[in-house]
Structure formats: C-alpha cells, structure tokens
Amino acid sequence: MKHALHPKTILSLDGGGSHLLIQLSVLACLEEDTGVATYDLFDLIAGSSSGGLITCLILGRQLSAQRIIEKILQEKLLEKIMTEHRFGRLLNRLQVRPKYQGIPKKLALQNELGDLKLSSLDKQIFVPCFNLNQDQLEIFTNDSQPDFLLSEIADACTAAPSYYPPVQMKDGGWRIDGGVGMNNPGFSAYLYAQRCWNDCTIKMLSIGSGWRSFAIKGASACGYGGVQWSAQGIASIILREKMLANVRTTEAVLGNQVLYINHYLKDYDMPDQMDSANNTIVQQKALDIGQRWYALHRGQIQQWLQPE
C-alpha cells in the first residue's frame, strides 16, 4: 500500500535555452513563498537541455533558484556560456557552423560544478542526452556508469544542434542536447521515480519555458520545399507539438498528481528565440514573466504542496 502522508516529489524542467530564467523566476517565487530552498522541496529533479543545467546546479551545488539568478545577472553566467565566434558572423548567419563556441561553455560549467560527480548526489537526478555513437536517447541518473562529472553532463545536455558543437564525454561517446527527443522529461521522470519508490505516492511539479508561436500562411506554404519549411521553423513546430501531446498524456494519466505550468511567449511580448535572453533587458523580462506565472498559478501550487 502506498504511503499517502509522505509523498515523493519531482521537479521537472523543460528545455528552453536562455528562457530558463522564466523557470528560475517561478522557483524563486516558490522559495520566497515557502521559505524553503528548491533543493529541499524535491526528492528528484529532472531537466532537459537548459533545464538539465539548472538540475545539475541545484543538485550538485545545492544552489537556490535565487542564487542561480544572481549568477546569471551579476556574474554573467549566460554570457560566459553563450560566446559567439569572434570572426565570421556571416558564417554564423549562414548556419555553416555552430553559433556559439563550445570551449567557453565547457570551461564555465567546469568552474561552476568542479569535480562533482553523479555519485556525490544525495538526491535523484534525471537528465536526457542524445548519444550520437549509439544513435539513441539516454538518461543520466545516479546509477549511470561511468561516474560522470556533472559539468560534462551539463555541457552535453545543453549542446543544442546549430547552437553548440557535440560534446565528447569521459567514456569517449559524443552527445548532444537530449531535448531533440525529450524536451519535456516529466512523464519519463515519473516512471523512473516509480521504480525508485514503488511504495510511495509521487507528485510532480513540471515547469515549461514558454511555448513558441509560428505564423505560416497556407497559401504561401503551398510552394514550400525543404529549404523554405526549414526557414519557417518546421523542426521547432514538430518539437512543440510533440511536447504538447506529451503534456496532455501526462496530465490525463497522472491527474492531480502533476501540475504543469507553461504559456505562450507571445502573450507576454517575449522574443521566442532560444538564445534571446542573453542581454539584461530580455533577462529582466523573463524574470517578470516567471513572477506573473507564479502569481497566476499560486493557488494551484499551494494546493499541490499540501500533503495528500
């Protein structure tokens, strides 16, 4: 029989590039409301892409969401990670190479996470990456072997194609951003949690980073070939719709055991490019959006926090 009085709690964080500030802002509001750090509120944290970066920082360094925000605003963490090539921006626009350099990101993450390894974690982690050598999605958990550094996991899970080069990890394998196959890791994380705690009630708070919108005219699209559809963001449309379907399935199966928070960025006049929040003006807008989301869902969150 499952124990209803002491449920295990999951935090699931979607990918979303620099829009991670929205998620951090929601979590910072939660910390202020409860007086408890995010690390202490959850038994398992799952994160895809930029959500995986947040996951590694919270579980590895036990940083509060507010402290990570300070690192971004005051210590310019995003600017360190998002370093463009010094020359040849035309090549970047033509997308014939990654937009950002891989080495500065790797060094910044090593500086933040040091020699912390999966085995050093006291709580459960769940971070997807795509393994190029094996041509399949893989999940990094506490039991993954070899005992990977958190810095290389954070580096690999944020290696979004066209933005960053793939990352070679200590086992010799090359990985890219797991968001290509699991940008919303919630349901899979829930199933994993069931295996970890099969005698417990499990609840999940899942936070997105904002839905992108696409305006495509049907008459114009009649003449589109592959190049035009690519330029219109067809890959991003497919990713969004797969995520939406996954969210609906998760909510239908788990019911009130899951609370998912996400909204369309266009409703908040927020630029939706993955790397748009790498300047102070947009960063502040992202933080404001997170506060608005929290206020909008505060009642639901308080109810979710209550013991069963």
Can you give the mean pLDDT? 91
β-strand amount: 5-15%
Fraction in helix: 40-55%
Mind describing the biggest β-sheet?
8 strands, mixed
- Computed Rg: 19 Å
Number of H/I helices: 14
- Uncertain stretches: 1-5
Category from helices, strands and their pairing: alpha/beta
Instruction: Please count the beta strands (DSSP E, at least 2 residues each).
Output: 8
Distance between the termini: 14 Å
How would you explain this protein's 3D organization?
The protein is 46% helix and 15% strand. The protein is built from 14 helices and 8 strands. Strands 1, 2, 3, 4, 5, 6, 7 and 8 form an 8-stranded mixed sheet that branches. Helix 1 crosses helix 4, helix 3 (50-61) runs antiparallel to helix 8 and helix 7 runs antiparallel to helix 8. Mean pLDDT is 91; it is low at 1-5.
In short:
The protein has helices at residues 20-34, 38-41, 50-61, 65-73, 77-81, 89-93, 102-113, 150-157, 179-182, 186-196, 218-221, 226-231, 234-254, 280-305, and strands at 3-13, 44-47, 124-131, 136-140, 167-168, 174-177, 200-207, 258-261.
Summarize the SSE layout with pairings.
Elements: E1 3-13, H1 20-34, H2 38-41, E2 44-47, H3 50-61, H4 65-73, H5 77-81, H6 89-93, H7 102-113, E3 124-131, E4 136-140, H8 150-157, E5 167-168, E6 174-177, H9 179-182, H10 186-196, E7 200-207, H11 218-221, H12 226-231, H13 234-254, E8 258-261, H14 280-305
Parallel strand pairs: 1-2, 1-7, 2-3, 7-8
Antiparallel strand pairs: 3-4, 3-6, 5-6
Helix pairs in contact: 1-4, 1-14, 3-8, 7-8
